Amino acid sequence: MAEEYGYTCDMYFISGQELEAATARSAPTEKWSLEAFLELPERNIAMIETLDYKVYYPKASTYLLHYYPYLDLPKWLQRLIMALWHAVIAVLFPNIGGVIGAYVTRNSIPKWYNKQLRKPNWRPPNWTFGPVWTFLYCTMGYASYRVWTELGYPSVLGSPFHLPYPLNAFLLQLVMNWLWTPMFFGMKNISLALVEMVMLDAVVVLTMLRFFEVDSVAGLLFVPYVIWLSLATCLTISIWRANPKWRYGDPSKGH
C-alpha cells in the first residue's frame, strides 16, 4: 500500500515480458489491457508507470501499476470526491502564510506592536486579525478554485508562468500578502511594509477584476478582502506617520 496523490493505492509489480504477454492477450480497444491479467475484473487501473529498479534489484520488475480503490465507486461519486479534494486544498493553501505569520508575530506583537508603537484609536482589536485573515484566506482560496475549474483545470505543476493570467495574478498577490508580515513584524520596517502593501492593493484589485471576468462569484469573494486590505493600508499609514523612528527598522541598529 502507498499514499499517492492523496489516495491510498495498491502497487503491483510485473516484468516487461509479462506486460507484453498480457497486452497481446487483450483486445486493443480495452482502456486498461492488464485488468484480465491481474484478475481484477471489477477494479480500475489508474496508471501504468515505468520504473527501472534493475540497477539496484536485478530481479525486480520494471513496471508499477497504481490502483486507487475510489475508482470502484460510481462515476458521479468519483467526480464529487475529486471536486471536494481539490476545493479543500485550494481553501487551505492560502492559510499556509497565515500559520507562518502567526509564528513570526508571536513575540513582536506583545513586545513591539503593543508596547512600542503609537497606534490610532480606531484600529481593530488584536484578536480580530486572526479570525478575519483565516476567513479571507479561505474565501480567496475558494475563489481561486472556482476560477481554476472555469478555466478547464489547468495544471498547477511546474512553472507558474504557464498558468492562465488570472491564476498568475492570484499567486502573485498571495506571495505578496505572505511577505508583508515578515517585513512589518520581522524586520520592523514600516516604510518597506507600507510600500509593499500599496503594491499588494493594486495586485489584489487587478486579481479581483480578472476573476470577475471568469466567474462573478469568484470576483465577489474578493470584495471583503479588498475592504479589509483598505483598512489595513490606512492603519499602516497611520502607524507610519505616528512612529517616525521605526520607519526604516529598529533604530537601535543604526537605521
Automatic annotation (TrEMBL):
Membrane-crossing residue ranges in chain numbering: 83-105, 126-145, 165-185, 192-212, 218-240
Transmembrane helix among keywords: yes
UniProt KW Metal-binding keyword: no
Localization per record: Membrane
Principal cellular location given in the protein's record: membrane
Highest taxon listed in the record's lineage: Eukaryota
GO cellular component, one term: mitochondrial outer membrane
Membrane topology: Multi-pass membrane protein
CDD domains in alphabetical order: TSPO_MBR
GO biological process terms on file: tetrapyrrole metabolic process
Keywords: Membrane, Transmembrane, Transmembrane helix
Pfam families: TspO_MBR
Family according to the record: Belongs to the TspO/BZRP family.
Protein name, as recorded: Translocator protein
